[in-house]
């Protein structure tokens, strides 16, 4: 499987632009899957374009675990979360190449939002192994990869890697400019 470079941290601020909502509306994408009180895992949140909306949707009783390999992204996310009054709902963590640092979350995650991130990980297999271990039985994972970076063949390889870790395709969904599927933890 082709490995792609990690998005530079400074692009995170461009990706968080309010104009992006016209192309990828976080509420439209997330509201069918995220509810109050949930614990949501978001690998590769950048500076929080989707994270802040997830935090609003989980409400005061919910939690968002946002993990990124770039400390600058996590610091930007924390700043934006404080400004939005959502910091108390977000557990922002710096991960490293070998692990997302989720050892304390075995079977704790209700929903995982993997948007434009799996193709940047050093090991697709390790990504899905770790995500699956953190997810509750029956939990969902929304996998979306930008079609401009990831071809259909590579996306299908990702789905096969996910299936090897008890994450089965529940539905192929349509998101603009993305290959996407909703997976369910067996």
Helix/strand class: alpha/beta
Instruction: Please tell me the total number of domains.
Output: 1
Helix % is: 25-40%
Roughly what fraction of the amino acids lie in strands? 25-35%
Helix and strand string, N-terminal first? Answer: HHEHEHEEHEHEE
pLDDT averaged over residues:
91
Unreliable stretches (pLDDT < 50, length at least 5) are none
Number of strands: 7
Regarding CATH, which class? Alpha Beta
Per the principal axes of the C-alpha atoms, what is the gross shape? globular
Overall description:
By secondary structure, the chain is of the alpha/beta class. The chain has a single domain, classed as Rossmann fold, CATH 3.40.50.150. The longest helix has 13 residues.
Secondary structure: elements and pairs:
Blueprint: H1 11-15, H2 26-30, E1 39-43, H3 51-58, E2 63-68, H4 71-83, E3 90-94, E4 109-115, H5 124-134, E5 135-146, H6 152-163, E6 167-172, E7 178-185
Parallel strand pairs: 1-2, 1-4, 2-3, 4-5
Antiparallel strand pairs: 5-7, 6-7
């Amino acid at each position: 499987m082709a490995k792609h470079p990690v998005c530079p941290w400074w692009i995170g601020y461009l990706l968080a632009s309010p104009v992006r909502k016209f192309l990828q509306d976080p509420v439209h994408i997330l509201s069918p899957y995220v509810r109050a009180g949930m614990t949501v895992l978001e690998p590769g949140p950048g500076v929080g374009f989707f994270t802040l909306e997830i935090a609003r949707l989980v409400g005061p009783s919910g939690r968002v675990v946002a993990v990124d390999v770039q400390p600058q992204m996590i610091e930007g996310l924390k700043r934006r979360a404080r400004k939005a009054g959502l910091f108390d709902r977000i557990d922002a963590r710096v991960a490293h190449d070998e692990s997302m640092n989720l050892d304390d979350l075995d079977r704790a995650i209700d929903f995982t939002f993997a948007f434009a991130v799996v193709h940047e990980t050093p090991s697709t297999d390790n990504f899905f192994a770790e995500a699956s271990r953190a997810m509750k039985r029956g939990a969902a994972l929304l996998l979306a990869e930008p079609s401009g970076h990831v071809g259909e063949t590579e996306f299908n390889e990702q789905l096969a890697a996910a299936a090897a870790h008890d994450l089965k395709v529940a539905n192929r969904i349509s998101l603009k400019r993305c290959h996407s599927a909703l997976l369910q933890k067996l």
